[in-house]
Amino acid sequence: MTATEKIGRPNQRTRTRKDLLQAAARLMRRGSTPTLEEVAEEALVSRATAYRYFPSVEALLVEAAVDVAVPGPEDLFRDETSRDPVLRLQRVETALHDMIAANEPLVRTVLAHSIQRGMRADEDGRLPRRQNRRTPLIEAALEPARHQFKPAVLRELTRALALVMGPEATIVVKDVLQLGDAEARRVKRWAIRALVEAARRPAEDD
């Protein structure tokens, strides 16, 4: 298998999963509660393919509802003039935090489905269990400042930031640390700033 094939196949699987989510969202916007077969037809994939990605139509529809609630990079940064990575990343965190707060039962259900799938012995480990919505937002936030970081550092920073944003971070601050909303936001903003400052140090020390 070539390097291109190794990269392309996971990317294709991610796109297929996204196509199913978008197809479900389109059908729901038309006022229907679609079956998995109807979503598969709308997404132009087979029913068997749809079942490989989502074990039930309930799991698909719940995640589709969450998927459409997450803003895309273009929408989030359309009116943003700042090039400061910390401010831009904090904008991402605020958007995700607000989305999760407004859709918490659905978000927790999506998390539960992904955990359950990960525990299944027959689960195909090559298929993405979750849609990666935060990384495109993080990458867009960092784009104006990417010249400030070495490529390897930028890659690690992007990954580290994904740990302090999104549903899992919300579970930690709310369930584990039992923080109130304002303090949870403050802690996550602090973590974002600390990570960016840590990533800048190697470049400053050279």
Q: What proportion strand? A: under 5%
Number of domains: 2
Number of helices: 11
What is the distance, rounded to the nearest whole angstrom, between the alpha carbons of the first and last residues?
A: 38 Å
Order of helices and strands: HHHHHHHHHHH
Nearest-integer average pLDDT: 86
Please give the number of β-strands. 0
Class by helix and strand content? mainly alpha
Instruction: Estimate the global geometry from the Cα principal axes.
Output: globular
Q: Nearest-angstrom radius of gyration?
A: 18 Å
Into which percent range does the helicity of residues fall? over 70%
Summarize the structure in words.
This protein is an all-alpha fold and 206 residues long. It has 2 domains: 1-69, Orthogonal Bundle (Arc Repressor Mutant, subunit A), CATH 1.10.10; 71-206. It is built from 11 helices and no strands. The protein has helices spanning 3-29, 36-43, 47-53, 57-69, 73-77, 85-102, 104-119, 134-142, 151-163, 167-176, 181-205. Helix 8 packs across helix 9 and helix 9 runs antiparallel to helix 11. The radius of gyration is 18 Å and the shape is globular. The N and C termini lie far apart (38 Å). Residues 1-8 have low confidence and may be disordered.
